[in-house]
Amino acid sequence: MNKLTKTLVGFALLTLLFVFSCQKKNDKGEDTILEGKATVYVDESILPIVEDEAAVFETEYNAKLQLISKSENEVINDLFNDKAKIVILTRTLTAKELKAYKSKKITPRITPFATDAVAFIKSKTTNDTLMALQDVVDFVHGKTVPNIKGLVFDNANSSTARYISEISGVSVNNQKNIFSFKTNEEVLKYVAKNKGMVGVIGMNWIFQPPLDLQETVDNVNVLGVKGINESEYFFPTQDNLAQGKYPLARHLYIVNCQGYSGLGMGFGSFLTGERGQRIILKSGLVPERIPTRKIRIRNTISKDKN
Q1: How would CATH label the architecture of 116-250?
Q2: What span, in angstroms and rounded, lies between the C-alpha atoms of 205 and 119?
Q3: Is the pTM value of this prediction over 0.85?
Q4: Model confidence over 39-92: pLDDT tens digits?
């Protein structure tokens, strides 16, 4: 056996060994960037768009994502208790949270991929279609506001409750005439049947409701909102979100703390890539990057021949 033959045989053996080791890794259930299984914890207020993205990702690659939807606080707790490694949130991690990961010698990959909104809704049995954000703040502080009978949140620990609490400067929890359920679906059903109640939900549930919830969505009005110290009302449309006119817009982030090149990295790249951003665009939300559109200019028009 000459030197060249020995080299080729050695290379072939190394290749087979590499393939075999990779196969063993997948058999153990460990994931790579585009293969295997992973669990993704999702803020319940943005579950519909994540379900759409995951479904397409799974058809494109040999991957399976188990989505677990919870309130924002529950997702964050699972992340810092090492129960969750991949999470999707409506906020980035705070300096304190990042410091905690630094102590573990882990650098979270935080990637924004879309813009969503917090929306106010009312039953269609009322004629109101506008809401001043200052009125909501006043109501949270215990003042009487004629056009608000009560505020209804999806969950006391949700991102929507935190969002309004931050704007109001006081927690919405345990306040008079402010109620919390467990899901956005429950909020939609309750508000649709109760005149004067104002629901606070993730806009994604209006744009992409489950089929069995469409009739309920048709029975609520999404309200136009006037920001504090502003004079105009804006509805949470895709154009208004993109132009920064709607006062309750928020970014969506995937936070990957796997610490290796796994499905967290692959799904994050998919979300911010051409395909993932087009799904965002079609959903009614605003993609982080507007997908490119190719235009072909022809000098002549040809007719198809039968």
Answers
A1: 3-Layer(aba) Sandwich (3.40)
A2: 10
A3: no
A4: 999 999 999 999 999 999 999 999 999 999 999 999 999 999 999 999 999 999
